What does this fold into?
Amino acid sequence: MQTSLLSLNYSRADLLSRIGGVSFGDEVFNSLFGKLNLGHLVFLYGTQRCLALSELLCIQAQLALTEGGLESKAIFIDGGNTFDPCLIAEYAEQLSLDSDKVLENILVSRAFTCHQLTSLIANNLKPWIDRLNIKLAVISNILEPYSDPDIARKQSSIFFKVALNSLVSMIREKKIVAVVTSLDDEYIRKNSFFEKIAYHSNIIAKLEDYGSSTIVILEKHLANPLDILLNECKRYVPVTRAE
Amino acid sequence: MPKSIASPKGCVQSVKGWILDLYPKENAIVIWIKTEKGNTVRLLDRWRYSIYVSGNYSDLIDLAKQIPIEGVALEEKYVRPEDSDKSTVLKIPVSNSREAQELAEKILVYGRYRRFRLYNVDVKPSQMYLYEKDIFPFAFVHATQRSDGLEWRLLDSQEEVEYKIPPLRELTLEVKAASERIPRFTDETREININLGGESIQIDSEDELDKLMTLVELIQQLDPDIIYTSNGDEFLFPYLARRAIENEFSEKLVMGRERSPLRLSNEKGKSYVSYGQVHYRPLPTRLLGRIHIDMENSLLYCDCGLQGIIEVARICRIPVQRVSNTTIGTSMTSAQLYHAVRNDVLIPWVKADPEDLKTARELLIADRGGFYHEPKVGIHDRVGELDFTSLYPMLMLKKNLSAETVRCKCCPDSAERVPELDYNICEKRKGIVPKSIELLLRKRTKYKELIREASDPSLRSLYEKRRAALKWILVCAFGYLGFKNARFGKIDAHIATCAFARRTLLKATRLAEEHGFELVHGIVDSLWLKKKGATESGFIELKDEIYRETELPISFEGVYRWIVFLPSETRRNLPVLTRYYGVFMDGRIKARGIATRRHDTPEVVRKCIEEMLTILAKGEDSSDFYNRVPESIDVLKEYVQALKSRRIELGDLFIERHLSSEVYEYRHEVPQAIAAKQLVKEKVEVSAGQSISFIIINSENRFSKNRALAAELVDERTSYDVDRYLELLFSSAATILAPFGYAVSDLKRAVDIL
It folds into this structure.
């Protein structure tokens, strides 16, 4: 296995432009999503599985370009205090990777209020991306802080707008893959934040639990429509993935 | 009788006494002073507070031009507590909290939510006044009216532990509505009862308007300083306000010392989450110039009485009225805000500084909480317990742990480092959090000494209440370091405190082991140790040794004759860290995590388990304990028979549970939801976080509404579900006897139910 974990020195920029994205490292997911392209916003929502999937991507990003990785560290901005380093270490071990090294290459910051999350996205993320040459940023559980009943709706809406606009322009400018996740519940589905993220997203997928399996519903894919449509046609029945 | 001297224009020149109450009034603060003669004097101080704006200098100048308010000026302040230099900020005087809030929002919009940051916006004006003038509620002061406002001379000290409280006129108010079952706002008033110093007055005239008029007259005449109610915030005062509207008396329903009448607010109480549990706080009723204490809704009053409330008000500089009806965290925050204001540090309106970026590996090491050592399930003889006193606040103070000091930018190479994480701790300044808890810790120690020395039981009780109130604040101080809305908290400081605590407990454990002790159980700040032949003095020697090595106060709680560590209810081989019971050598029983400690245990179960423990507690050691188990099961048998023959009083069957969500959000028909729905049907307002009391009437009934009954609807015809209560009883008994091979089925067999 040609695993990079950021140790290879060949011309990364050249390869990146050719390869252009990160894959899930899983046959079913790869066939459904293709690669998550640089410059794209991916929105995963649904059950806890979407949070876990975004953590898995933080490992994938560290792999060699030839293995579907980005040879990049990952930034994980945690809006729901759900980041689980033990789970990452477990994934890493399943992939025969050095878990310590994998954990070192994921940079985490937790936001507990919508003001903190806005500040992280709008003020801190860009300098971090520049300084650490990051190619994958995960904003986990993005909607939770903005749904805080203690914050006036008008205020949280404006802060959300500031954060989302900053994120979208940064993705385009810095050519990174940004994965945004949100747990799905009635309240979150009802609010307009959900629609706003969906509007800006290149890929939207919903993850549902089905017994011990997960159903992935691809709701939008603007990356390689033709290929993906072909794939999706093959798997039009919601994909059930064994644990 | 001493009187209230109202001087709305502030004509009193000079007055000496205690600060009873204060509140803002348009461009001024009203302060009520209780004099040594027992009179109450109203003072008015022309004073405005200010909000502050930080941002780019030219943006501030531009903003200043847009604000047509007198007194707008540039000032130098610390915008962050960690800043080494002051920044230029815009000061904008405001008249009241609403104006501050509205103006702040407009400024944010004007700056497109990016150009400006706002400060001191939501600090209560009364608190800001106390901080600025460096005075505190119930302080003994001398106030003099000068041409430019009041001049304050403090004749008291927050350090004082034997301070004098003026004699207060305390009145209890009770209002009964003319309803058979649940009182509603639409019910007429049946009677009003007033109790002042043991003397009762009943107002029960025929006409409702007459009753209201008499009440107002009596309140003015008796002029109480404190009015106690049961559920005054939730029901009594809103009810009176509503009845006043019905009787066209609302403009005259004056209950405070100001002439402003009591209003019926359209606002609702607040449901909030604390430590994963939903709580409810009704909208408080404020009586201007008097102190209203709702005995049902004041957690601090329930635990520490008026003395505890006054202690907190004095030490945290927050009006007594607010202390009684707000969270402990709000009071503790006030102590921090005082230190910020006195040090020219601005108080951020919103907390926007996020956690420092760290690697996932660092997070794995850092975010581990407190120390714990799992106990071995079962009974242990002669175990001694050592507890660190206020360990976390003590570490925060001694190690200078605060948002601005942990990983500060000014001393990256500081010698003070956080164990395991190697974070630097500031050496140049003392943090706001340690500053704010220093006095609390000092006073708590003093009260502890006074309690030990006091021979007068009433004096001892007074000190105990004050000490208990301080303990509440200190417990909260650590949690607030990691609380999302804490103004001067930061998760890194929270993590650092846990790291120091883990190191302390490990160090203490090593010392104990070096002295031949075995660690039986350890959690957060307590250690349970045993050693063959160890005497009390052996434990005390160890305690002293740990104190010398750690420099942190530690107490010896005693030696247990025996202690039982209990298993998980679902996995019997796994211990639960906080579930145990035991008896000290002097006969004191200590229990945690069992039915006697749970708030939702019905009285019948609580009594049974307590009696079972009392019998077991007679056991001198584990073998004696075993001999007494059958006798304890006999107690269970008596309760089983009492339940089966329906000899239990209905009041002993009530179960109280919190509503974890709004009534309409419940998807499962749990008993508290059923009871809440019944109350809603009776037009009672029920909110998430409220406690609902109910009785189980038929848990298997196919119609969920018939399974439980709200306590308010219970009457003499109510029948209870014997089987369900038996299950609760057996399950609680099985919990305490689980390590000895008793499951529910064994107990049922033992009492001949199977």
